[in-house]
Specification:
The protein contains ten helices and 13 strands. It is α+β, with helices and mostly antiparallel strands and 318 residues long. The longest helix has 13 residues.
């Protein structure tokens, strides 16, 4: 929630002093115009902090919330409404939007304006309580963003000129996005990015109700899967591995010599995530066999030295 002053009058003297200090500090100009700027952010923050104000909390009853969403979701043009607001006596700066009332208006896809010819009749139809607590105005921007337009800003200034304590303003759309302001007119402070929190008849928030409901859900834990490592040997790809029946567990094998090279059985390579293993083991792993299956097959199929074809030793000699 951000804060700023509605009217800068209380700090104008301090701003003027800062401008003069900045001007007096100017020692060089290369134009005929002097532009002096000062950052008053810290000044404004200090002034607001000195008031020791409690930020407002704005709630909306379930009935008012449903009415507001129905107006926005089912109307293809812009539409505006007023809200009847109660300030909770026992709590500091807590407000509840109790109900929504729709006023006569002229609407298009991009505008909604009060129908002044019918507003008197509308005001007379309200109860005294509604008139005295009409402290909320909202309107829909249909499918557009919720940033206020120049027309909106002018309308807000007109509303504020008729109010002495506080006023709440919101713009929403069909995506359920909101831009909400709380004007604390009595203390000259504007709060922006104010959340409007739906509450139920028992006083609990809709979010807390949902949290309790979600706590009753028992979702299955995701199955933990082991990481797999894929190794592809371009040298041997497309050769004997095209035969799905080449190596299967419990299948008698009499391969004593690999048709490509004896090095296939003995040459060690590094496989990421596993470590050192022979090319034969790596290729079997790539075909989907696990390490236990590979060991079983290796026991049956690893080539033996045959007469007339000596195996290489570690130095590459026969």
């Amino acid at each position: 929630m951000k804060k700023q002053l509605i009217n800068l009058e209380p700090v104008k003297a301090e701003i003027r002093t800062k401008l003069l200090e900045k001007y007096d500090a100017t020692t060089f100009m290369n134009t005929d115009t002097v532009q002096v700027q000062v950052d008053v952010k810290d000044l404004l923050e200090q002034y607001i902090a000195s008031k020791n104000l409690t930020e407002p909390s704005v709630y909306i009853s379930a009935e008012a919330y449903m009415k507001m969403r129905k107006l926005v979701d089912d109307t293809t043009t812009e539409i505006g409404w007023y809200g009847i607001v109660t300030q909770v006596p026992a709590l500091t700066n807590v407000y509840v939007i109790e109900d929504i009332v729709v006023y006569p208006q002229k609407v298009t896809g991009a505008t909604c304006e009060q129908d002044d010819d019918k507003m008197f009749e509308f005001e007379m139809s309200l109860t005294d309580e509604q008139v005295n607590h009409k402290r909320f105005h909202g309107h829909s921007h249909v499918n557009m963003t919720t940033s206020p337009s120049g027309v909106d800003e002018n309308f807000y200034q007109d509303l504020l000129s008729q109010t002495k304590d506080y006023f709440i303003i919101t713009i929403t759309n069909k995506r359920n996005e909101y831009t909400t302001r709380f004007y604390d007119i009595a203390n000259n402070v504007l709060y922006t990015d104010v959340p409007i929190i739906p509450i139920l008849d028992n006083g609990s928030t809709l979010d807390s109700w949902y949290a309790n409901a979600k706590a009753k859900l028992n979702e299955p834990k995701p199955v933990e899967t082991k990481p797999t490592t894929s190794y592809t040997s371009n040298k041997f790809q497309g050769s004997i591995f095209d035969d799905d029946n080449y190596y299967k567990k419990d299948t008698p094998l009499d391969h004593t010599y690999h048709p490509i090279s004896d090095d296939w059985w003995d040459e060690e390579i590094y496989v990421p995530g596993i470590g050192m293993m022979t090319r034969w083991e790596a290729d079997m792993l790539d075909q989907g066999l696990d390490l236990d299956d590979i060991k079983d097959i290796e026991t049956q199929a690893k080539p033996k030295n045959k007469p007339g074809r000596p195996r290489k030793d570690k130095k590459g000699k026969r």
